[in-house]
Specification:
Layout: H1 2-11, E1 17-23, E2 29-35, H2 59-67, H3 74-80, E3 84-86, H4 93-96, E4 112-114, H5 116-120, H6 124-127, H7 134-155, H8 159-177, H9 180-184, H10 187-211, H11 218-241, H12 254-277, H13 285-314, E5 323-328, H14 332-343, E6 349-355, E7 365-366, E8 369-373, H15 378-384, E9 389-392, H16 399-412, E10 416-418, E11 436-437, H17 453-460, E12 464-468, H18 473-483, E13 489-494, H19 497-507, E14 515-520, H20 526-536, E15 540-543, H21 550-555, H22 557-577, E16 582-586, H23 597-610, E17 618-623, E18 626-627, H24 634-643, E19 648-650, E20 656-657, E21 659-660, H25 662-675, E22 680-684, E23 690-691, H26 692-702, E24 712-714, E25 732-736, E26 742-747, H27 755-767, H28 772-782
């Protein structure tokens, strides 16, 4: 029991023992004691019945359950008189409440540690199918069969039957706990087990040989002969239960080596304990330590040699059609890329070297590929190594550094690709590397966004998430990222049939346990949205549905106000009525001292949602600038104009905008959701503003042309546009958050009592078809800092 307690503490955090209320004889409740086999506070994050492959069960907990060692503390219940050694297993009060009058007769006898129902259903958690409600399945299928056996036992109690159950049942539990079927169903697994046991015998003998410098006495040889069968048995159990044969050796990693250390350590502790309990010959303690070390080395080295051999045999002959590739960046991204290129020669790349600015890495090798030099030696290395292609594998780099690489590659006539930014919520080693051409977003520089992956995954798991505007750029990326975190339901709403169909086909068909519902709806339709809220009761809402095209809304002002303001009001009011946990408004930097109807409507939405604070729903707003390659972005427009030979149309030579990468923006939105504690406005760090004319010239360069080849035409600012966007208002105060790229803007101006009256007046003007000047005047009364565009 002491060793078991020690293993539990080493395996996971939390108490050693677990107590739970059970129903005993004559219906009296008592606390049953067990060794803890699940994570701490497991009952708060899941059902009281554990199903197959329940993630809450710890690694050592699975071993204890199979061996039934978790039941040992129940001897204390026997001493107290709550239980006996043999008898029906006691159930929790929630299950006993479902007993029929006939089934309640099982409570007439004292419950036991081992009972007929337990022997017949000793691995009941493994019998519960995955994907079902374990409590419901247990109540409907497992419990009736157990009660039938226990009732038969209660009707015919006898000491002889108790002895049969005690000894026969114990033997059956112990023997059936061994995963013999798992070992013998595969010749490969059986061969590896035998091989490991041979190593075990050799290292055990070698430990004595080292201890006595090769001069093993007859007495010590007798100790080896007596102990070796017990050593083999103990090692067999430890190897199997540690999962050493559930890993393909050709994919050996750190996790497998840790499993080897764990299994050998447990065995090395159990061997002297078994020797003491069985009064066997005692062996020198130093041999135990030597045996522990030698066995770990032997098991680890044998697997490494096997992996190397397999890799050599599988390595194809290098064909002449493979390209010599130079990788820029010898960091984590470069390591991931090189490993992928080596293991997948069908990609057609032969890595010939690294380039890295870190002087300490020069001359070092990674997977056999050498760091050849720094960026200043790029041209020389390309010629010496006969490089055919260059791949940029930098997680962080300035825009100028990437431009320098592009220019040099263009000068030497070499193609240049880049490893895309890793999605923050994905595990890089679980995803294949997909190269892409350098994008204009890369020329602005790359920064590594630190991810609270565990926090995001925990926040969205088993939640019902609603996304409006789910077919748009932001909405679709939100849906994609949230979907990776296994929410219970995803409710996607959009008024564009083609956009909604596209995101639906992207998500459906993946087996992640998330149900996807798609609705073709307008967010202004309160009746239809109310039906949707009644059916799904969303817990987290992302409101991304909005009209965003600034010049167009200056003309179609009525539709802009109705869709942006009325749509937001409708969704926010339903969130309050149905007590959603969180409502996140996707806002814009154009809401700061707006000069456009689009920006003014977004500011009104911010004010309205901030005024709803105080209830059960937490209202947040997230502001950020333009997103590269989104629908309506200037980048696709410039590409089309360059392909036609120009001219590129730019509003003004000095116009600047803030830009963000799509995945970075959406990830920070999710991060801001975690940070929000009350009704707040978050602003994402968008870096430095970018001149649109510089953006255009960079894009021309990327498309293989010279900026002199494509003419640029300045057409003047369009309706509603500013020369430069702002990120701060005087009426707001900047506060830092736990994330360096997210800030909170605390407004010093809160919605006053006349806000709702003015908002209702604005809606009345829109619905009555009022002229543009009256609508703008009404909006200025709501947003005093609004400076409307004048033609």
């Amino acid at each position: 029991m002491i060793l078991t307690a020690l293993f539990i503490r080493l395996d996971s955090e939390g108490p050693v023992f677990f107590g739970q209320i059970r129903v005993g004889r004559n219906g009296h409740p008592f606390t049953i004691y067990k060794f803890r086999t699940m994570v701490d506070n497991a009952q708060a994050i899941g059902p009281c019945i554990t199903g197959k492959n329940d993630a809450r069960v710890t690694q050592i907990g699975r071993i204890l359950r199979w061996l039934k060692l978790d039941e040992l503390p129940q001897f204390y219940n026997v001493l107290k008189g709550d239980m006996s050694f043999v008898g029906p297993r006691p159930e929790v009060p929630e299950m006993v409440a479902h007993y029929s009058e006939a089934q309640k007769k099982v409570l007439n006898v004292r419950p036991g540690i081992l009972g007929p129902g337990q022997v017949a259903h000793q691995h009941e958690s493994e019998s519960i199918p995955e994907g079902v409600d374990p409590e419901k399945y247990y109540l409907e299928h497992v419990l009736p069969a157990k009660l039938e056996r226990d009732l038969e036992y209660a009707r015919n109690i006898s000491p002889l039957k108790d002895l049969i159950i005690l000894f026969g049942g114990s033997a059956r539990v112990i023997l059936s706990s061994v995963k013999w079927n798992y070992i013998f169903e595969s010749r490969r697994r059986f061969f590896f087990l035998v091989f490991d046991l041979i190593l075990c015998c050799l290292t055990y003998w070698a430990a004595f040989a080292l201890r006595f410098e090769g001069q093993i006495t007859d007495r010590d040889m007798e100790t080896i002969r007596v102990m070796l069968p017990y050593v083999v048995v103990v090692r067999t159990f430890c190897f199997v239960y540690s999962g050493l044969y559930q890993t393909l050796w050709q994919y050996l990693g750190i996790e497998e080596l840790v499993s080897i250390i764990k299994s050998v350590t447990i065995g090395s502790v159990l061997i002297p304990v078994l020797s003491f309990l069985l009064q066997l010959k005692l062996q020198p303690r130093s041999t135990l330590i030597m045996d522990w070390f030698l066995l770990i080395m032997s098991l680890g080295l044998s697997r490494m040699l096997f992996k190397i051999t397999v890799d050599r045999l599988k390595k194809p002959r290098l064909g002449k059609n493979r390209k010599n590739v130079l990788v820029i960046g010898a960091g984590d991204t470069g390591e991931l890329l090189i490993r992928e290129l080596i293991t997948r020669p069908e990609l057609g790349y032969r890595p010939v070297g690294f380039i890295d600015e870190d002087i300490q890495k020069l001359g070092m090798r990674m997977h056999g590929v050498k760091v050849l030099g720094r960026m200043a030696q790029l041209a020389q290395i390309i010629r010496v190594k006969n490089v055919d292609s260059v791949i940029i594998a930098l997680s962080e780099a300035s825009g100028e550094a990437i431009k320098t690489i592009i220019r040099e590659c263009r000068r030497l006539g070499l193609p240049c690709q880049i490893v895309p930014r890793m999605t923050p919520l994905a595990t890089p080693r679980a995803m294949p590397v997909r190269l892409k051409d350098v994008d204009v977003a890369d020329l602005l520089g790359r920064t590594l966004v630190h991810a609270d992956i565990d926090g995001i995954q925990h926040y969205f798991r088993d939640k019902r998430v609603l996304i409006t505007g789910a077919g748009g750029s932001i909405g679709a990326e939100l849906a994609e990222m949230i979907y990776q975190n296994h929410p219970r339901e995803m409710i996607l709403v959009d008024n564009s049939e083609s956009n909604l169909y596209e995101i639906e086909t992207q998500l459906r068909g993946r087996d992640v346990g998330t149900t996807v519902y798609c609705y073709l709806r307008n967010v202004r339709n309160e009746v239809e949205l109310e039906k949707l809220f009644q059916q799904h009761k969303p817990e987290i809402i992302y409101h991304a549905a909005a009209y965003k095209h600034v010049p167009m809304l200056e003309t179609h002002y009525a539709e802009g106000v109705l869709n942006n303001v009325l749509g937001t009001k409708t969704v926010a009011d339903l969130a309050v009525r149905f007590e959603a946990e969180t409502f996140v408004l996707i806002s814009t930097d154009k809401a700061i001292r707006p000069s456009s109807i689009m920006g003014a409507t977004k500011r009104i939405c911010e004010l309205y949602t901030q005024g709803l604070r105080g209830g059960k729903t937490k209202f947040l707003a997230v502001r950020f600038g333009n997103v590269f390659n989104s629908r309506g972005s200037v980048v696709p427009l410039f590409r089309r104009q360059i392909e036609r030979g120009g001219p590129l149309t730019i509003t003004d030579q000095e116009v600047t905008r803030y830009f963000m990468d799509l995945s970075e923006a959406v990830f920070l939105i999710l991060q801001a959701t975690l940070l929000g504690s009350e009704s707040e406005i978050f602003v994402l760090d968008m870096g430095q503003p970018v001149k649109i004319v510089d953006l255009a010239r960079n894009l021309i360069l990327l498309m293989g042309l010279s900026p002199d080849d494509i003419p640029i035409k300045y057409i003047g600012l369009r309706p509603g546009e500013k020369l430069e966007e702002e990120i701060e208002m005087k009426s707001e105060k900047l506060l830092p958050t736990a994330h360096e790229k997210i800030r909170i803007w605390k407004s010093q101006v809160a919605p006053d009592q006349q806000f709702m009256t003015r908002l209702e007046g604005l809606m009345s003007l829109i619905c009555s078809g009022a002229p543009r000047d009256k609508v703008i005047q009404s909006m200025r009364e709501i947003v005093p800092e609004y400076q409307p565009w004048i033609a």
